[in-house]
Amino acid sequence: MEAKRFSLLNKSKLRTNTVVWGGLFVMGAQFGFLARLVWWDYSWDIMEPVTYFVTYGTAIVMYAYFVCVKADYNFENARDRWNLRTFHKLAGRQGFDAAKYNIIVEQIKEIEANLEQLENIGALLSVTEKHKIPEKF
């Protein structure tokens, strides 16, 4: 189960990185396209309103993200959200039950904590036997 989860995490990280690099490519292409229009095809006087609307459109998209997700848009959180979304989509396709996995992991943590408490009690009992503390004390 852990190996399947690890495989799904790697696939989702690869897809997320592909989307992030794709976004960088699109932004670079947009910059190049607008630069060509400003310096070769048209002038700044014509392109200034166009660049204003492109910038304002980007602000609208970021605000829409905020309204839908109820969190500030920053690239790290957006990447993590995309990664988690991709992981759950891949997990659903391959029959990996992430909720069941999380329950099992929580149970393991609880059992380990209980074992640690038992070891502490065992150490305490060995100390009391070593020093022979009277029972009426």
| Helix share bin | over 70%
Number of helices: 4
Low-confidence stretches: none
How large is the share of residues in beta strands?
under 5%
Mean of residue pLDDT values: 87
Q: From the alpha-carbon coordinates, what is the Rg to the nearest angstrom? A: 28 Å
Number of strands: 0
The H/E string reads: HHHH
Written account of the structure:
The relative contact order is 0.09. The chain is mostly helical. The protein has helices at residues 2-41, 44-69, 75-94, 98-131. α1 (2-41) packs antiparallel against α2 (44-69). It has four helices and no strands.
Protein topology:
Elements: H1 2-41, H2 44-69, H3 75-94, H4 98-131
Helix pairs in contact: 1-2, 1-3
Summarize the structure.
The protein is an all-alpha fold and 137 residues long. Helix content is 88%, strand content 0%.
Keywords:
4 helices, 137 residues, single chain, mainly alpha
